[in-house]
TonB-dependent receptor
Amino acid sequence: MLNTKVSKAVRLAIAFGAASTAAFSASTIAAQEGAEKVERIEVTGSRILREGAISPSPVTVISGDDLVNTGAMNIGEVLNKLPALATTYSLANSGRFIGTAGISLLDLRGMGSERTLVLVDGKRHVASAPGTSSVDTNTIPSAWIEKVEIITGGASAVYGADAVTGVVNFILKKDITGFNVSATKGFADNSSYQNEKYTLSYGKDFAEGRGNAAFSVEYNSQNSLNSLDNPWTATSYSSMPYEVVTGQARPDGQIDSEAYPDKIVVPNAGYYLISNAGTVWDPNTGGILGKFNGDSTLGDVYTGAIDDGNYCASPGCDFINLRQYSEIQPKFDRVNFNFKTNYDVTDELNAYFQAKYSKTEGENIGQPFFRFYSGANLIKRDNAFLTPDTAAMMDEKGLSVIGVNKMYNDVGRRLEENTRETTRFVAGIQGNISDDWSMDLSLVHGKSEIERINGANVIMANYANAIDAIFDGNGDIVCRDADARANGCVAANIMGDGAISQEAIDYVTTTSTGTSEIKQTVFNATFSNSAIFELPAGMVGFAGGVEYRDESSVTIEDAFAKTGATFFNALGETDGGYDVTEAFFELSVPLIEDVFLIDTLVFDTAVRYADYSTIGDATSWKLGLDWTITPELRARFTLSEAMRAPNIDELFSGQSQSFASVDDSCKVSELDQLSAGGRATRAANCAALGVPAGFDSNYDSATLETLVGGNPDLQPEESRSITAGIVYQPEWLEGFSVTADYWEIDIDDTISGIGFQTIIDRCVDSPTGIDNQFCGLITRDPNTSEITLLKGFALNIARSTNSGVDFEVGYDFDALGGSFDTSFIGTYLIESKDYPFSAEPENYTDSEGVLGDETWQGNISVNYTYENLAIGFSTRFINGVELYDHKELERNPNPSNQMRYGSYFITDASVGYNFDSGVGFKVGVDNLFNRQLPGSTTGTGAGSAIYDNIGRFAYLQATYKF
């Protein structure tokens, strides 16, 4: 293997001249000085090979050993515990969206996974989510990870598009020797939930040490976990008025709970207006008439004494516990195969090759099909399945039809199965081409193939025909519609849980499928020189190069999914791609050294020019200062402008037809509701659109045809990022360091969807006339002036701003005969604002302190090592959060739902011992004190997945190395 400055780089256990910590341990500090020459390495945030590990940007580093030693089944779950990362796509909430079960994506600062760039060895990786650039971190070989580096702030100038909020770079071990096998098995204390992971890795040098080759196999799996299987999540809660629960008036000034200032939290309570058997309602009044029994006869709905009109509480309450349909952990199986080799073709140049194959099978079981106060769920008086008692009730009340609110548990819970297969190949050559110049030429090709299967999917037309059952001339029960009968319609009895026949279930349900293929090809050439020329303060460093990237994504849906013929929404197909050619350079310029209060002052800059086949050209840049005040104290500052090109899904997602209920803002009745100024503006704009004065639409709250899908006219998002921080590493306290970094990210022209009614209103209420992007989404009949089509495309209209302070403290010391490694990493969030319209600075929501945007988060870890014994503790802290943003609470200080979750602490612990023979054992317990979920959450939401929904979880890990 190449014994050069490049190849030695990854062996340095250093980060950036300050302690960087994960939830587990701090990285080693990097200020190596003295006679020994420090080798050049590439640091995340810069492509310049630098002497020492001085990064121009704040970087958090997690060692690969820390990742493996947690006992976690997948990398993403470990990283999502860091304060800088949001749990937007973790395993716990991966069933929230179609096609995502079992996936784990990274989302820096909670501003969207599409704005976080994930790299492997500084190179791009093929996406796992169709139409995006988001990478499933579980496809990365955990046994080979040397470290993970996380940089905050716009880094597009260095790494390209998508690095709007930052970069997560997985650095793999270069040379792997020996045999390494591990097995991990975990068990939950509160439920039957289990998981397991097995890894095997083998590497060997060849050609007298000039080459190295290695392969690895990883397998991990987990079973699903339903809410009812965990006592924390099994209970259904409702918030009910004090008077309803107690039968007494609330005492003046009494607040029963911080979470519910005007209500009482009641367990074993829930909605009684719907049931598995079918709850009957009067279409004229909406009142409840009863509930079907198992034999289709009509019984009463028992609400008991505690009833607020929608919810009731036990005892004596016929509520449905909807948590029986909530899956809080998906089932999945995953296998990864990896191969890598490198060979010194000369003393200075090293050729390398990597190949991988990953397959994940994820499964998510959701709610059954349901109908709730739907006009499409009416049973007529002559329905053949009506029992005499139900018919008599209808006659008594003069009803020709009854409505049925039903959760169709007897039809089956909707099932989604996802199979994702990822292949990736990397080939390249790197090394020194002169004493000062280094290069890295690489070619990357990756492909992800995804199949989605949706079972128990109800075909709405078949369902409507099946429930309209009558007797034919022979006394047999058949579907009323003759054409439906000719096409195989089977009459369905929906009155009672289990009343429907299997034949009817087969007729009304189908299994729909969708397939996706994502391809990526990247060529990159990077050249670096850390001493391109000398200034009085030191050597100027340079890096530059070119990159060509080709991306494509195709999604094909079957006829049911594409047309929206089932209970699911219509799913548009996507067939698109783009290519981009980029040129970039970076300079590191030493300005001053060895003067009062300036040990060194280094200026960094980077510029990247990109030419896209879709949006044209775009430029990103970065400016930075690295100021070493004294050998103990350092300050750093960066200002950058990054960009994110619209992804394939946003540009080329297939357009599908739908409908929306809207009002025409140009009709005279709408104009009459405005002030004089507002009326004048709207009337002028309506006239400019060709709408005559006094226009009165023939449609009142009309359901109009809409078209939703990709927008090929989108432009890139642009962000401005600032980071400013200090690093203190005292000489008087060896092993101690502290950093504090302020960060601010402002994303403008954010790509965002918009409601159809808002499109109409914004078109005609613009003070600058009708030459705006909203009017272009509306089509009117030139003769009648009626709206005939609305387009619901995403637009570059929004803005998002986030800011906060990151803190890291590390202290390594010897005591009790061994060594301690202690660390703290925390984030204080200052603001998290979303502006639906970037041109309206007063129109925003500030989510700081709201679930998903916690004000304070932190991790504290203490690890002790004595010879072959290792003991570790870590505690994660999340401060109390609101469930409504500040403006929502101003509008409604006492909302009916829960308002707040309290502070949350969770502790993990482990004990391990490594024998001299190479055998090692570890026993660990996550959530050691069995900390329950706050409030009534199940821990599956985009924000609430930050809370553990499994409970105390023990694992045993065995390893063998030789």
Notes: Residues 651-714+754-793 form one domain. The mean pLDDT is 88. The longest strand covers residues 509-535. The radius of gyration is 31 Å.
